[in-house]
Amino acid sequence: MRISEASALALATRLLEEHGAPRDHAALQARVLVTAEMKGHPSHGLYRLPRLVERIERGVIDPQTKGTQRWRADAVLEVEGSSGFGPVVAMAAIERLAPHIPDLGIGLVAVRNANHLGMLAHYVEAIAALGFVGIALSSSEALVHPFGGTRAMLGTNPIAIAVPTAEEPLVLDLATSLVPMGRIHHHAATGRPIPEGWARDAAGNPTTDPGRAKAGAIAPFGDAKGYGLGIALELLVAALAGSALAPDARGTLDSQSPCNKGDVFILIEPSLAPGLQERLSTYLDAVRASPPASAGEPVLVPGDRARGRRAAASRNGLEIDQRLWEDLNALSRPRILAFEGQRS
């Protein structure tokens, strides 16, 4: 079924408000979910809303907090997320740091114990809209096996980068796993097998069964290269945020555990070289105009496909699974438990 962007935002915002979130917190969390849907990533979209509601009800999300911020150094803002919504905690910290970047040149936010961020593109796009280069990193539970191994030992450890240009920014957003675990959960929820090579089961055997994959491990992208980048980001996030390493991390994919992963955001003042942003845009246009490998399939740069999908969704509405939409509409009577606070 198709629904409008406004209808999706209204429903998601209302459900979160009914479960104790202030309106601005509910609207921000809803926006992150709906934008993921619009960009063609339902695994990070409304599919996650019932789990967010359940986590609030179980007391492992505090929907009212923005976390606690403190300056660790002039250019480093440290944040105890206190089990708040990931987008709310992250954006509050980015907004606190951003006014200082013209003087500092570069600054960093390090967050621990906040909930799932959703797509990292949201944050680097927001940073780029302020005129800065943005880098975002996040960690997760052990979901990825090392190159040459079979047991989950690393997080999916996504990274996003946005570089402002004279036109739309370049936006790269990728996990260091072959796919995000959210996509495997989405396949399981919709009863579809996963492609060969995505994952192994709990015994270490290759599988196309998403249920078995959920209990096993995802492959790193690019074999040794993705593994190397993933484990480097694993240590980098933990070192900067003081957060749990993957084998001890919990809370991004279940409804019971406090979330104890880490997030890092870097804001950088770009060069003031005359005409720089125009040169960057010209270069990206030259890449797009380069000869395609397949006729009728033009070369794209990171961010183009997501922008195209979002524009189409704005025109035509969102394609949403009817059962999911009905389930979301049924979540109308909150059963809120008292917030229990962060448990280690």
TrEMBL record:
InterPro entries: Mal/L-sulf/L-lact_DH-like_ah (IPR043144), Mal/L-sulf/L-lact_DH-like_NADP (IPR043143), Mal/L-sulfo/L-lacto_DH-like_sf (IPR036111), Malate/L-lactate_DH-like (IPR003767)
Pfam families: Ldh_2
Keyword flag Oxidoreductase: yes
A GO molecular-function descriptor: oxidoreductase activity
Keywords for this protein: Oxidoreductase
UniProt key word Transcription regulation: no
Recorded family membership: Belongs to the LDH2/MDH2 oxidoreductase family.
Name of the featured protein: LDH2 family malate/lactate/ureidoglycolate dehydrogenase
